[in-house]
Amino acid sequence: MPDLFDMLAPAAESMAEGAMLLRGAALPYEKDLLAALGDITSQSPFRHMVTPGGFTMSVAMTNCGAAGWVTDRAGYRYDRNDPGTGRPWPAMPKCFLDLAVDAATRAGYPNFRPDGCLINRYEPGARLSLHQDRNERDFANPIVSVSLGLPATFQFGGLKRNDPVKKYALRHGDVAVWGGPSRLFYHGVPELKDGIHETVGRMRINLTFRGAL
Ligand code: MD3
Ligand code: FE
Hints:
By secondary structure, the protein is of the alpha+beta class. The protein has a single domain (4-210), classed as Alpha-ketoglutarate-dependent dioxygenase AlkB-like (Jelly Rolls), CATH 2.60.120. It is built from 3 helices and 13 strands. It has helices at 4-8, 30-43, 94-106, and strands at 13-16, 19-22, 60-65, 68-72, 75-79, 116-122, 128-131, 143-149, 152-156, 166-170, 175-178, 187-189, 204-210. The protein has a 7-stranded antiparallel beta sheet with strand order 1-2-11-8-13-6-3, covered by helices on one side. A 4-stranded antiparallel beta sheet has the order 7-12-9-10, with no helix packed on it. Strands 4-5 form a two-stranded antiparallel ribbon. Strand 4 (68-72) and strand 5 form a beta hairpin. The termini are far apart. 35% of the residues are buried. The structure holds N-(carboxycarbonyl)-S-(naphthalen-2-ylmethyl)-L-cysteine (MD3) and fe (iii) ion.
């Protein structure tokens, strides 16, 4: 039987085959997510990582869960330890896991159990150029993303870098699930516009839940 939350949730919007946008789905979790985020970043702070090509990323990152995504001159990979602290990444908070599993279930992936969450922090001007996410072991797992704070434009293309891109506004509380054919689609975020969000401040935070290992 659907609970009150399901009944009040707006219908999922399809972005592409396998990709669903759940507007506002993180809003009931907002307070818990922001508190848990503070715990995580006190243990594993945001940092600007370096790409294999030697560029410092404008997006600052950290991770929680068993596996964290990292990049340095040696390449892109998942690591059980935070290279900054030498210790395991902070555990995945229950509210993170609950939201990811709930969203994946609503999008048609009831068996998804993420083992890592990459946390991206965009300050005004930060951007993420068009890329594919292909460091995960099994592309049958979807990726769940949660947007918090300032709104961003999200660019979503196809399997080839030169495929035409669609643009979506991703706002505070929006959750998207990327599976099936869309799992390997190129995507990116152009420069974040300046602004101040009333609960998150002068930044955008994006959580991406992954089956990494
Ligand atoms: C579509 N993050 O962390 S979230 C990333 O807003 C990343 O921080 C962006 O791309 C951000 O890798 C976009 C939406 C997203 C995340 C992963 C995807 C869309 C995706 C993987 C495959 C297809
Ligand atoms: Fe990505």
